[in-house]
Amino acid sequence: MPNLSGYVKTFLKLGVTGLAFWLVFRKLDAGQLWAVLSRTHLGWLVVATALFIASKVLSAMRLRMLFEAGGLRLPAGFALRLYWLGMFYNLFLPGGIGGDGYKVYYLNQLTGVGIKPLITATLLDRFIGLLPILWLTLLLASLAFSGHLPGFTLPTYTLGGVSVPALLALTATAFIRPVAAWAMHRFFPHFAPKLNPTMLQSLGVQAVQCLCVWAIYRAIATNGSLFAYQFIFLVSSVVAALPLTLGGAGARELTFLAGARYVGLPADGAVAISLLFYGITALVSLSGGYYSWNKLPLHNHTYHENFAHRRGRFHRVPSDEKTA
């Protein structure tokens, strides 16, 4: 029965993915979209791919730091390979959750570290990764509501000459860090010392991915404000992470289409950026399949001898180090 349940869930996600793409393409002129995609500059796509890879390296090091806070120290190279393997599974599983689950299972089997700290680290990785997205989105919104971004102004209203949405968005950005710090100290004290460095890493991840969007924007030479595209991209990053479609496919494109109509961007250019970003994500993630077929087995005697020989590289962090 559990297997049947898994098949039903996958089938439903496939249905939602197909529905999302159908909604996108029924509102687009396929000819116009192809015209945008066909003039894509390959050199800028290479730059975008390199920037995307750099953002994922930063993400892997952030997760490695959180695993260490939870009691497991991993070599940087191993952490990077494990992250790439998770990205590979995220292509086929809803919202990236399946890839996280596999990493938890793999590390539990490999090192004997308990499931709870591993799950906590992966959930906090998602939570901390979301904070800079919210911060940057609200910051861009506050600037757009107040008309301070070239070519990108959101509908707004004023009170005494002050843009109320801009003021609310800017105020909200000031509360993100204090609220996160309170929650970490209250519920996850062992992880709290890692909040500042991991938030900085997350900010770096999103900044580099926004540069990736800039490179794609240059690659297709579309019209409209770059800031508006980056704003929609940040919103779509939240939507794509929800466990609604397979690997976020369709959800990001639908968000780009709706966002483009809201802020007055050309729909074909917005969807083209979304499709190219997904294509880069898929291409880079597929390379993680190598580690799915070429990894040490989990249960044979040779592997455990290898692991025992390298126990200085994979080991639990002493409790006094965790609380230092």
UniProtKB/TrEMBL annotation:
Pfam families: LPG_synthase_TM. The chain crosses the membrane at residues 40-58, 78-97, 127-145, 157-180, 200-220, 227-249, 269-291. It comes from the Bacteria. It is found in: Cell membrane. Its main location: membrane. Keywords: Cell membrane, Membrane, Transmembrane, Transmembrane helix. It is a multi-pass membrane protein. InterPro entries: L-PG_synthase/AglD (IPR022791). This is Lysylphosphatidylglycerol synthase transmembrane domain-containing protein. It comes from Nibrella viscosa. The lineage of its organism: Bacteria, Pseudomonadati, Bacteroidota, Cytophagia, Cytophagales.
